[in-house]
Write a structure and sequence with these properties.
By secondary structure, the chain is mainly alpha-helical. The protein has a single domain (5-228), classed as TorD-like (Orthogonal Bundle), CATH 1.10.3480.10. The chain has helices at 5-27, 36-54, 69-81, 83-99, 112-116, 122-135, 150-169, 173-205, 209-228. α2 (36-54) packs across α9 and α8 runs antiparallel to α9 (209-228). The longest helix has 33 residues, at 173-205. The chain starts with a helix and ends in a 10-residue tail after the last helix. Keywords: Chaperone. Pfam families: Nitrate_red_del.
Amino acid sequence: MKATGWEQEEELRGASALCNLFANFLNTKISVGDAEYATGLMEALEGLWASSARQEDSALGAAEASMDESLLAAAKAAMAADAVAAQERLAVERTRYVRGLRAGNSVKPPFESLYLTENDSLEEIASVAGAYRVAGFQLTEELLNRPDSLATELSFLAQLFGEAAQEVSRDDIEAAHALCQEAGKFTRNHLGKWGPSYCEQAAEATDSELFRLAMILMGDFIKSLTEEEEGKGKTNCN
């Protein structure tokens, strides 16, 4: 059944919100000594899980092929046992696997050129930056990463989906469709090629239950965006 304009707008806003959720998780400085961040993140991830179960065909529903109930249960148990310790472990593991600042780390930091080229190619970075320029995407102070970082690429998609939602709200379906096509092309040529692999490796290697849950959900969400290109995705502008 063809989605209504309102449904399309809601799906696009949901996709944009999820992109921002995961981009902010990768970028936000996590403090130690309290549990405020971990508590908020746990609530968001649990809400995403519940939404996935209720709305299988929605943009808010990440593909759950990699997930089982034990992942969610383990994260909730860690928070219940000692939320402050869980946040500290989350901060350490996020630094380890996102910033790549620990010697001997077997998982490469989340930069596209490290996954798609053999020598951290500047050409790959330039290709990503070129896509940003065409779309008018500006790197902000909050995005302190390289253009080809996972956080920056998710922020870019968040902007495209958000702009597409605005166009739908103005009944400009043609403009919204063009933005969705741009998001699909970027996912196909860039993020979808490497993002799920990084998330899977980081989830397998970490000893933080909350970080593992975030990585699995993030990887499955990126997969769902990739499936959009194959006609099986959750975000529809047609």
